Amino acid sequence: MSTALVWLRRDLRLADNPALAHACAHHAQVVPVFIWAPDEEAPWAPGAASRWWLHHSLAALADALAARGSRLLLRHGPTLQALLALAAETGAGAVYWNRLYEPAITARDSAVKAALRATGLRAESFQAHLLWEPWTLASGAGEPYRVFTPFWKAASRAPVALPRPAPDARPAPAAWPASVPLATFGLLPRLGWDTGLRAAWTPGETGALARLGAFTDAALARYRDERDRPGRAGVSRLSPHLHFGEVSPRQVWHAVTTACAGAPLEHPGGEAFLRELGWREFAHHVLFHFPHTAEQPMQERFARYPWAADATAELAAWQRGRTGYPLVDAGMRELWTSGWMHNRVRMLVASFLVKNLRIPWQQGARWFWDTLVDADLAANSLGWQWTAGCGTDAAPYFRVFNPQRQGEQFDADGRYVRRWVPELAALPERWLHAPWTLPTDEQARTRFVPGLSYPRPLVDFAASRAAALAGFEAIRAGA
Ligand code: FAD
């Protein structure tokens, strides 16, 4: 029984952590380490909101390990050098970690594994981040899936192993190697824009499990009916916790199974929710097999789409939530303030950017990457390509979400828009999603002046929709 290093990455939890469990089961001393090496994830190093989350999640994990008599060591990259140095300092004979699947990370991890093994160290990785690894599922023709429904049909039949509890405490090494202070990673914002994030979230395993418990106790039963209503607490908000691995998808799957008396796929809320978890798996499957789709459209013809010539001002209005379309603006402000946006509204704001403003989806994906606490390369790329109509299994290109209609349908009582766009709060529901149509007497009564109190629509919906469709016709004709 020797010493093992556990290289933690986006598995910032003690429970159901196979690399940690394996190290604890087979080694007398276990040294957990996190290495900050953002350059190795380029061009998708964590954005500003993700860094904020990471800081707090690492602090929470360090506390949890300390409570068990262990420690979380922090080191700066390059990763391979950091691991080799730590192995030399501790006399470790093995390094364990849980696998991730994004292109830059898999390339780095393969190189690290080979180099560690070449020095005689044992290097082993484990499955923890996904329920079904991308190479374990294939269509009847032996190809990767490109369409969600058959993927889900095959995947949801495959058994999901039970999660494992956190391992018992391990004896600490006789002397702990040095750790750099967390502050040296420079993850927190200097300008203090994180007030809204702090109010909205509790990063870390305890926060993740509390969120999962609250969801299965209350919202799961109504999930199918409420999941599209951004003004209600109808979804789990587990996405950043899942992204950083503070809770595992196996834990989520089995918590939902238990809450549905063992038959989640026969339970309306359970089935709808696990299907969404299935989309998370599908997103990783697609990015793993088609790694270019983080930057390039899956359907090649979309690379020739005639985007708007200069849309700098329109992009800024979209980012700041000043497009004049209430549901779009509410979503963009929710994102800026809390680091998260409801899925229904993500689809709408993405459609608006790509189709009504004709700004390339990659620019929207970059903004999301920097501002979302759950920014995830697989889910973000799939979400943007789906909405733009250029991805696998995408929304048909002619589907252009109408912000006014979406508002009237999914935020009928206006709770969401009133919360995030307070200058519209006094408007009656009838005009809330089209404030530019507010009659003069209502303007006087509510002291609301279209264009002054709140912007007029940045673009005319019908005209911009027609321009988008003309663009699609042009690339179709040239296909
Ligand atoms: P719930 O409805 O409670 O779903 C449970 C879990 O299933 C989520 O936590 C998430 O892990 C997964 N999930 C749900 N919907 C999807 C989906 N459509 N695709 C993949 N996984 C899904 N999700 C991210 O995690 N990171 C992103 O960067 C991201 N970018 C997106 C960009 C666009 C343009 C769009 C349309 C969607 C994006 N999504 C992304 C997917 C989805 O919007 C979020 O996962 C969801 O809103 C998270 O909220 P929740 O945890 O309450 O979800």
Automatic annotation (TrEMBL):
Site feature (Electron transfer via tryptophanyl radical) residues: W307, W361, W384
Cofactor: record remark: Binds 1 FAD per subunit.
EC number of the protein: 4.1.99.3
Biological process terms in GO annotation: photoreactive repair; response to light stimulus
GO molecular function: deoxyribodipyrimidine photo-lyase activity; DNA binding; FAD binding
Residues annotated to bind FAD: Y223, F273, D374, A375, D376
InterPro entries named in the record: Crypto/Photolyase_FAD-like_sf, Crypto/Photolyase_N_sf, Cryptochr/Photolyase_FAD-bd, Cryptochrome/DNA_photolyase_1, DNA_photolyase_1_CS_C, DNA_photolyase_N, Rossmann-like_a/b/a_fold
Catalytic activity: cyclobutadipyrimidine (in DNA) = 2 pyrimidine residues (in DNA)
Enzyme superclass (EC): lyase
Coiled-coil intervals, chain numbering: none
Cofactors (names): (6R)-5,10-methylene-5,6,7,8-tetrahydrofolate; FAD
Keyword list, A-Z: Chromophore, FAD, Flavoprotein, Lyase
Purpose: Involved in repair of UV radiation-induced DNA damage. Catalyzes the light-dependent monomerization (300-600 nm) of cyclobutyl pyrimidine dimers (in cis-syn configuration), which are formed between adjacent bases on the same DNA strand upon exposure to ultraviolet radiation.
Protein family according to the UniProt entry: Belongs to the DNA photolyase class-1 family. Belongs to the DNA photolyase family.
Name of the protein this chain belongs to: Deoxyribodipyrimidine photo-lyase
Native source organism of the sequence: Plasticicumulans lactativorans
